[in-house]
Amino acid sequence: MLRAQRKLYWEGGKALAPMVRACKLPLRLLCLAYGADVVYTEELIDKKLVETERIQHGDGPNGLVEYVWKKDRSTVMSTCALERERVVLQIGSASPDLVVRAAQLYERDIAGVDINMGCPKHFSISGGMGAALLRNPETAEDMLRALRRTLDPNVTVTCKIRLLEDDAKTVELVRRLEAAGAQAIGVHMRETHHRPREPAIWDRLRAVVDAVQVPVLANGDVYTAKDIDTLRGDHGAKSIMIARGALGNPSVFRPEGPLPIFDVMRDYTRVARLVGQGDRSTIWMLNQMIRYDTTLPRKPKDAVCTAIKGPKPDLNVIADAMGLESSKLLPIKDDITWEKLGLKPPAALSASSVSATLLEGTDGPPAKRVKLGDNSGESAQTTHNQST
Ligand SMILES: Cc1cc2nc3c(=O)[nH]c(=O)nc-3n(C[C@H](O)[C@H](O)[C@H](O)COP(=O)(O)O)c2cc1C
């Protein structure tokens, strides 16, 4: 029976990878404006998500949406309509029940939910989350099935993994995840024990891409357009996911090539202030840009960097050093538009460059890929068992 309209997942696209502290609303909006197709949030833990409450600013559709922690009213996640069709909420979880409750609370504001299956940190592993799931695929499958069964069919369900110790094991894992309902799989091309400074193993991508029908987002050491070309040309990648490359310069997504880092830092600071992000988060992010950008000298001495790196950095001083007139940067929480943010709206996805992954059945069946025609740029129709 024809039942659901499904949204697209962008195959062949470029995604901003999930990054704790970094992937908040300003960075996500900036990356979308620069050309990212999909933007992931930072990882948020299921238990915390289910303890949040939704607050909508303004009367219209474009107001800021804040999810605040009921315990201390701190903001756990902010979003707005500008990113609704492109934002993926990454959840840290090892519980089908909790991951579903968390995702259901947020689903009206997001395009997708991703389960983190790659975090090697003690906190995650000890809770059975992150990379622990690579060794416990049954729980990973249960979570994917539970999400697919319960979420609005328009919400894409994905996961992000690391490589296992050999190709055969990784292939077996991704096939199981696909069969359980993952509609795209981000693959960080390192094993759990690898350090970030060790090179990503691009040679091991093709086996994964060839093993599944759903889009595989190739992640690890992508910093330039040349890296993307090499991954696509030599290693079978179609979709790309960028983390530190986008920390160093979020305009890495621009098809025309990256902008000078100071222009990007100015855009970021303006957007962060306008959407009401706290100054500490903004200053942390500016430091990351200085740290990971490759064009700046190791110890940059200009006025902007000095203001950011000083003993008591003040965002007003930093913004003024950037020529931004900090006193005029007042939050626009009630009505956030690309124009007010001073950003170019992202190009609409062209129907010919996208494909959708459609699922049939109730309980994590094999995914089926369907190419969309020109008349289906926004959605596709699929059959879905009524008993879900
Ligand atoms: C600051 C930082 C925070 C990160 N936080 C997350 C996270 O929340 N969830 C996740 O799945 N991976 C996280 N990662 C890993 C990245 O998403 C990515 O897999 C890894 O950095 C490799 O990609 P890269 O070589 O492009 O940086 C983080 C990485 C960095 C540098």
Topology:
Elements: E1 2-6, E2 14-16, H1 25-34, E3 38-45, H2 46-49, E4 52-56, E5 65-69, E6 75-79, E7 87-92, H3 96-106, E8 112-117, H4 122-126, H5 137-150, E9 156-163, H6 167-179, E10 185-191, H7 205-211, E11 216-219, H8 225-235, E12 239-242, H9 244-248, H10 261-274, H11 279-292, H12 303-309, H13 315-321, H14 338-341, E13 355-358, E14 368-371, E15 380-383
Parallel strand pairs: 2-3, 2-12, 3-7, 7-8, 8-9, 9-10, 10-11, 11-12
Antiparallel strand pairs: 1-15, 4-5, 5-6, 13-14
Helix pairs in contact: 1-10, 3-5, 5-6, 10-11, 12-13
The protein binds flavin mononucleotide.
The site of flavin mononucleotide (FMN) has 23 residues, from strand 3 and helix 9.
Return the CATH topology of the largest domain: TIM Barrel
Helical residue percent band: 25-40%
Low-pLDDT residue intervals, each spanning 5 or more residues = 1-6, 349-388
Q: What is the count of β-strands?
A: 15
Tell me which ligands are bound.
flavin mononucleotide
Taking the sheet with the most strands, its summary is: 8 strands, parallel, barrel
Shape: globular
SSE series: EEHEHEEEEHEHHEHEHEHEHHHHHHEEE
Total of DSSP H or I helical runs spanning 4+ residues: 14
- CATH architectural grouping of the largest domain: Alpha-Beta Barrel
Strand residue percentage: 15-25%
Over the alpha carbons, how many angstroms does the gyration radius reach?
20 Å
Strand order of the largest sheet: 2-3-7-8-9-10-11-12
Compute the average pLDDT. 88
